[in-house]
Write the structure tokens for this entry.
Amino acid sequence: MPSTPSRSPSKAKPVANSKLVLAQANPHLKAAHQRRDSAQLSVASGMSGGGGSDARERMIAEKELERMQALLPPGKGGSGLVHTGQIADALYGKWVEGMKAKFGEKA
């Protein structure tokens, strides 16, 4: 007859207010710890009252956008998504042709 243990781990009393703690030395979580730490640093530095960094970043982004638009040929600076409709029509046409070839044309 197999012996059964007198105590089972499931009958242990739970610890009040227990919280899962991730070990700092766990190599599998190293990247997660680094992301968390860098996020905490960026939040802390943002709250330090640097002031004006958002305006500076916005100005740099606008200058970069103007520089990129200057590289485009004249009249080509539209929305940039006009070609997607043409691509969709071409792909749909190819798909329809493939279906006709596979199943025969049924009108």
Summary: The two ends are 76 Å apart (CA to CA). The chain has a mean pLDDT of 75.
